[in-house]
Amino acid sequence: MTFAGLFRRAAPGALKHSRKVAILGAAGGIGQPLAMLMKLNPLVSSLSLYDIANTPGVAADVSHVNTRAEVKGYAGEEQLAEALTGADLVIIPAGVPRKPGMTRDDLFNINAGIVKSLCTAISKHCPEAVVNMISNPVNSTVPIAAEVFKKASTYDSKKLFGVTTLDVVRARTFYAGKKGLAVEDVDVPVVGGHAGITILPLFSQATPKATLTDEEIDALTKRTQDGGTEVVQAKAGKGSATLSMAYAGALFAESCLKGLNGEPGIVECTYVASTVTELPFFSSKVRLGKDGVEEVLGLGALSEYEKKGLEAMKAELKASIQKGVDFAKQS
């Protein structure tokens, strides 16, 4: 799948649905380009942009784009309820970005508090919305959201997603570049989590099929795992992966909207409540539908390299999940 669909007219019948999308953290480095990309999506009829400050300006700017979605900007906690009310899909890129030398785990204490607060508001004002979590560390913020929703008695595991699409986008790009393939035709499943060694691209299942040496597989895997660090270092303290993350977030959001609209055959890799492994949350292929998760798909046949990678990630992913659960349960 490519992003070309966002720049074409919607499929026949798609526009009969009125879908409100809320972006929480819309004035940030990811939020602004994500807001523009969602404004371009013909499946969006109402675009609600929220942040603690500066959102009215972002909303005014984006609203001038001549597409279907009506745009409104909201700033400050006192306007959060209005921003969320009636939302079908809530996308959360809110939080601080990574800086040189900072791991995703270093972001935890700041971003975890932000996510907990925003999810508390979601549980009050749009409890039936599909939630796309972008705020890092996703391995922990998704479990935080789940616990907040459980406490509010609004938890629906089918409607909570960790957005790992950027890992898929990177794996596709790097694989296509290495083998000289047309990147728009390439797919590479990525499973596990969304940080370091918990990111496991399954190049044995990549399409189109191309021969890779053991060295190439190892190099492509490590580059996919370290893609965020590559961008942070290249920006030399001036930011993290914002543009590519906005693109990936918009891709996944489009798939969620297509699923909500009843379009069949929508499959994406995403971090969800799962029984694919012994871990309570795991990223794998998921079929999307009118209620969010329609089916969590299995891992398929893994190579020996991938089997080792799967086992190697489990302890770290388990600890990250527990860290999120423990944080959420704090008073």
TrEMBL record:
PANTHER family: MALATE AND LACTATE DEHYDROGENASE, MALATE DEHYDROGENASE
CDD domains (alphabetical): MDH_glyoxysomal_mitochondrial
Binding residue positions for substrate: 98, 104, 136, 170
UniProt-annotated catalytic positions: 194
Annotated binding of NAD(+), by residue: 25-31, 51, 111, 134-136, 245
InterPro entries: L-lactate/malate_DH, Lactate/malate_DH_C, Lactate/malate_DH_N, Lactate_DH/Glyco_Ohase_4_C, Malate_DH_AS, Malate_DH_type1, NAD(P)-bd_dom_sf
Catalytic activity: (S)-malate + NAD(+) = oxaloacetate + NADH + H(+)
Keyword RNA-binding in annotation: no
Enzyme Commission numbers on file: 1.1.1.37
Domain of life (superkingdom): Eukaryota
Residue ranges of every copy of the Lactate/malate dehydrogenase N-terminal domain listed in the record: 20-162
Biological-process GO terms, alphabetical: malate metabolic process; tricarboxylic acid cycle
GO molecular function terms listed in the Swiss-Prot or TrEMBL record: L-malate dehydrogenase (NAD+) activity
Oligomeric and partner information: Homodimer.
Domain Lactate/malate dehydrogenase C-terminal span(s) in chain numbering: 164-327
Annotated source species: Ceratopteris richardii
Lineage, highest ranks first: Eukaryota, Viridiplantae, Streptophyta, Embryophyta, Tracheophyta
Protein name per Swiss-Prot or TrEMBL: Malate dehydrogenase
